[in-house]
Amino acid sequence: LLGAALGSARAAVYFQEQFLDGDNWQKRWMNSEYKPDFGKFKLTAGKFYGDPVRDKGLQTSENSKFYAISSRFKPFSNKGKTLVIQYTVKHEQKIDCGGGYVKIFSSDLDQKNLSGDSRYYIMFGPDICGSETKKVHVILNYKNKPHPIKKLIRCKVDGYTHLYTLIIRSDQTYKVKIDNEMVASGNLEDDLDFLPPKKINDPTVRKPTDWDDRIQIDDPNDIKPEDWDEPEYIMDTSAKKPEDWDDAVNGEWHYPMVKNPLYRGEWKPRQIDNPNYRGVWPHPQIDNPNYSPDFSIYSYENIGIIGLDIWQVRAGTIFDNFLITDDEVYAEDFGGETWGETKGPEKEMNIKQIEEEQEKERVIEEKYFEQRFKKKLKRKKESGKDRTVRNTEKEEL
Question: Which positions form S-S bridges (predicted)?
Answer without folding.
Answer: 97-129
